[in-house]
């Protein structure tokens, strides 16, 4: 396994996780990569590592360029094990290497690995001289952990962006001009929706600083490296971080005997009659992380569930927990569902959405099976709200 040249003297030496299908409950149908970068200079520097089980793959790529024992500096942008997992083995090979991280990164690495390595905590604005090149450290707390940081290499116009701008995507192609852009952007959007979305305010602040940089390459921690479509991904992040929505209604539901499903279809029809783009999503057939990708630009998030044991269906409860944890803002909602003798799930769902900051415009419930007239009345009530 060989390293891939990013720019002269700078190499991708990461690992490809072809079989990964779940990442913290996030469905990763296309696998992932853990991107690690080797900088050959007077001080040989490695930016991030890989998950522990891909350590040998990373080391083999490093060995195609240099002996790993010659590494002087290791930059650890993030404590999580998909970034730091190879550190124990790497430090056995290069025990004198200095580890540059954020102050909170040092705390996290010490607590996790119980090792007294040569830590060098860095503050924002600190510059590390490598010889011909310099690394500029920028702390990015809560994008998406307290310890997060990015580093900028101005001589090569490369931003090592940590988790920002990444995608869970396994590929032998390394760059955005080598892989279908539509898939890369879709996976970047999904990554933002499922990992970065709760920290959109922090992302907005970071984007202001990044916009002042001259960037040719965004070397992210997962997936494809950006070199041709840098402006496009920066623009997309600006849009996603601002919680911009379009005239779109996402209708998420589960159903037992199809009554709630027929209500969902009637609500979809009402939105379409008012010129909305719609997405109708059954929780029985769609993973919650894929649904979140649809949430990212939806003005309306409509949720439907029948009653089970006086509560919403467990599938809806799981989705609500996931959705509210990711905290999309500036959204409207309609809550709906069918019931047999007690519609408490409607009140429960509406309360959760309201407390999370959603504007709940209506709650719609129907006992047993809605007929044609009931569904038409439902359509008219929804249309009257729009």
Please identify which CATH superfamily of the largest domain we are dealing with.
Answer: Ribonuclease Z/Hydroxyacylglutathione hydrolase-like
Query: Ranges with pLDDT <50 over ≥5 residues?
Result: none
Q: Report strand order across the widest sheet.
A: 1-2-7-8-9-10-11
- Domain tally: 2
Residue share in β-strands: 25-35%
- The overall pLDDT average reads 95
Structural class: alpha/beta
CATH architecture of the largest domain: 4-Layer Sandwich
- Structure summary, number of beta strands: 23
What is the number of helices?
12
- How does the overall form come out from the CA principal axes? elongated
Quaternary structure annotation: single chain
| Radius of gyration over C-alpha positions, nearest whole angstrom | 24 Å
Sheet with most strands:
7 strands, mixed
CATH topology title of the largest domain: Metallo-beta-lactamase, Chain A
Question: Kindly, what is the distance between the CA atoms of the first and last residues, rounded to a whole number of angstroms?
Answer: 57 Å
Relative helix content: 25-40%
- Given this structure, which CATH class of the largest domain is correct? Alpha Beta
Helices and strands, with pairings:
Layout: E1 4-7, E2 10-12, E3 15-17, E4 22-23, E5 26-27, E6 32-34, E7 37-39, E8 45-47, H1 55-63, E9 73-75, H2 81-84, H3 87-93, E10 98-101, H4 103-113, E11 118-121, E12 127-129, E13 134-139, E14 149-153, E15 158-162, H5 181-196, H6 200-210, E16 217-220, H7 230-241, E17 246-253, H8 259-273, E18 277-282, H9 288-295, E19 298-304, E20 307-308, E21 311-312, H10 314-326, E22 332-339, H11 344-355, E23 359-367, H12 372-385
Parallel strand pairs: 8-9, 9-10, 10-11, 15-16, 17-18, 17-19, 19-22, 22-23
Antiparallel strand pairs: 1-2, 2-7, 3-6, 4-5, 7-8, 12-13, 13-14, 14-15, 20-21
């Amino acid at each position: 396994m060989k390293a891939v040249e990013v720019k002269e003297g700078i190499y991708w030496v990461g690992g490809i996780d072809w079989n990964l299908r779940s990442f913290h409950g996030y469905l990763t149908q296309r696998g992932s990569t853990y991107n690690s970068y080797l900088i050959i200079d007077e001080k040989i520097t490695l930016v991030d590592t890989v998950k522990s089980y891909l350590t040998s793959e990373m080391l083999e790529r490093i060995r195609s360029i240099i002996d790993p024992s010659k590494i002087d500096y290791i930059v650890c942008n993030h404590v999580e094990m998909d970034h730091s997992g190879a550190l124990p083995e790497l430090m056995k090979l290069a025990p004198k290497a200095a580890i540059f991280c954020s102050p909170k990164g040092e705390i996290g690495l010490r607590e996790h690995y119980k090792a007294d390595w040569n830590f060098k905590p860095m503050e924002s604005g600190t510059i590390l001289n490598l010889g011909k090149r310099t690394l500029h450290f920028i702390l990015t707390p809560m994008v998406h952990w307290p310890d997060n940081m990015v580093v900028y290499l101005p001589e090569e116009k490369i931003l090592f962006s940590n988790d920002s701008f990444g995608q869970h995507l396994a590929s032998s192609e390394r760059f955005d001009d080598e892989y279908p852009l539509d898939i890369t952007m879709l996976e970047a959007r999904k990554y933002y929706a499922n990992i970065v979305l709760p920290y959109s305010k922090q992302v907005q602040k970071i984007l202001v600083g990044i916009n002042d940089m001259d960037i040719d390459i965004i070397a992210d921690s997962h997936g494809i490296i950006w070199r041709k479509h840098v402006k496009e991904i920066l623009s997309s992040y600006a849009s996603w971080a601002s919680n911009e929505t379009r005239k779109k209604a996402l209708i998420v539901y589960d159903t037992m005997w199809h009554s709630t499903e027929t209500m969902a279809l009637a609500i979809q029809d009402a939105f379409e009659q008012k010129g909305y783009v719609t997405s109708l999503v059954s929780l029985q057939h769609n993973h919650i992380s894929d649904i979140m990708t649809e949430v990212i630009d939806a003005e309306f998030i409509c949720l439907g569930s029948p009653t089970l044991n006086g509560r919403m269906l467990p599938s809806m409860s799981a989705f609500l927990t996931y959705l509210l944890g990711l905290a999309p803002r500036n959204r409207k909602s309609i809550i709906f569902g069918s019931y047999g003798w007690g519609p408490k799930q409607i009140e429960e769902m509406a309360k959760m959405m309201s407390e999370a900051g959603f504007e709940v415009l209506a709650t719609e419930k129907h006992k047993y099976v809605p007929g044609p007239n009931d569904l038409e009345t439902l359509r008219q009530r929804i249309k009257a709200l729009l």
